[in-house]
Design brief:
By secondary structure, the chain is mainly beta. The chain has helices at about 5-35, 165-170, and strands at about 40-45, 50-55, 60-65, 70-75, 75-80, 90-95, 105, 110-115, 120, 125, 140, 150, 155-160, 190-195, 200-205, 210, 215-220, 240, 245-250, 255, 265-270, 280-285, 290, 300, 305-310, 310-315, 315, 320-325, 330-335, 340-345, 345-350. The longest helix has about 30 residues, at about 5-35. Helix content is about 10%, strand content about 35%. The chain is built from 2 helices and 31 strands. Strands 1-5-4-3-2 form a 5-stranded antiparallel sheet, with no helix packed on it. It has a 4-stranded antiparallel sheet with strand order 6-7-8-9, with no helix packed on it. The termini are far apart. A hairpin with a 5-residue loop joins strand 18 (about 240) and strand 19. The protein has a domain at about 40-160: YVTN repeat-like/Quinoprotein amine dehydrogenase (Methylamine Dehydrogenase, Chain H), CATH 2.130.10.
Length: about 350
């Protein structure tokens, strides 16, 4: 087939235009990525107080501090984001990611969403009981300084109230006197989902609640409220073991839901002489429980034996706040005194981004 000079010229012009558009598109994407990286400040170290850790779907690590914003480790680059970059607060209490890859930074003063280039604040809608839902992609927040908790469905952030109970009859708590006249007994300290998709809420002193999408089951045990010495440990972590038992921030007891899902039974937990309460926990790929205590190290429980792992800086115990398992199965510890610790075999060592 013979192509005329006119058609040949036309084909060349179209090809040049196509390649030009492709080149411009790539340049625009590169420029947008460069602009996105302008937010935040490149730093070499993490703050000493890192309370929350998350690895997102892109492989980046996020570290939430107790007053200095949030850090993002992307490859070898560590960036720090603060209120000057759009965060609603520098005191971080939670980090989550949605199905679209947006990262949510939870603080005492609100929740910020990071879409890859900027932070925007979510505005809460005060909701009635009718706004309770249980959808698999919803995000839940508990530390936001307003009502009990929040549910985010991707479009709206609903402020919700847990069912009110007779705390005086169950726990001897008079909510009209200090400190409960200024502190909400129902403030949610821990949120976890079980294997069946039910959502659990651990509170300041009002025990724990399980929501199955239709109704609530209340755990009104005194060990989940004010302790004998007068302190309030709060139910900060709820984990389900391989046998279906639930551990609600304490080693002393475990719970099982009855077959009708309308009540629970309490069983003895781990042997005496061990730490009574843990502030963060998870279940690893082998079904073992990992639990941290503030100044008493990390504990691993395989269903039979409880093994303690100390985490020290010199001769002093590191104050542990959270434990997290990344996409490769490595454990990380957020601390209140010495930054972040990373698992190396059976030990935990201080994580220093600049030396990795």
């Amino acid at each position: 087939m013979i192509v005329s000079p006119t058609k040949t010229l036309l084909i060349i012009v179209i090809a040049i235009a196509f390649l030009s558009c492709r080149g411009q598109e790539k340049a625009e994407r590169k420029q947008a990525g460069a602009e996105a990286m302008q937010i935040g400040k490149v730093v070499s170290e993490l703050d000493n107080q890192i309370w929350k850790i998350l690895q997102d779907s892109k492989g980046r690590y996020w570290f939430g501090s107790n007053g200095r914003g949030v850090y993002c480790l992307d490859g070898n680059e560590l960036r720090q984001f603060t209120t000057s970059d759009g965060l609603v607060s520098d005191t971080i209490r939670g980090i989550q990611e949605d199905k679209d890859g947006n990262v949510y930074i939870e603080t005492f003063d609100g929740i910020s969403r990071f879409d890859g280039s900027q932070f925007t604040a979510l505005k809460a809608i005060r909701s009635s009981y009718d706004q309770w839902r249980l959808e698999p992609d919803d995000l839940w927040f508990g530390f936001y300084n307003a009502n009990d908790l929040y549910r985010y469905d991707g479009d709206s952030l609903f402020e919700l109230r847990l069912p009110r109970k007779d705390l005086k009859a169950s726990f001897g708590i008079d909510t009209s006197i200090s400190p409960f006249d200024s502190n909400n007994p129902y403030s949610v300290y821990g949120i976890n989902k079980d294997r069946d998709g039910n959502i659990w809420f651990g509170t300041f002193v009002a025990g724990a609640f399980r929501y199955d999408g239709k109704s609530f089951l209340w755990f009104d045990e005194k060990e989940l409220s004010i302790l004998p010495d007068g302190t309030a440990a709060g139910v900060r972590s709820i984990i389900q073991d391989r046998d279906g038992y639930f551990w609600l921030s304490n080693f002393k007891s475990k719970y099982k839901i009855d077959s009708g899902n309308v009540s629970y039974e309490k069983f003895s937990g781990i042997e005496k002489g061990k730490p009574n309460y843990f502030n963060s926990g998870l279940v690893d790929k082998d079904g073992d429980l990992w639990m941290t205590t503030y100044g008493g190290g990390v504990w691993r429980y395989d269903g039979k034996t409880l093994t303690g792992l100390s985490v020290k800086k010199g001769a002093e115990n590191v104050l542990l706040v959270s434990i997290y398992q990344d996409n490769r199965g490595t454990m990380w510890l957020g601390t209140d005194s010495d930054g972040v610790y990373k698992q190396h075999g059976d030990a935990f060592k201080k994580f220093e981004p600049s030396k990795e």
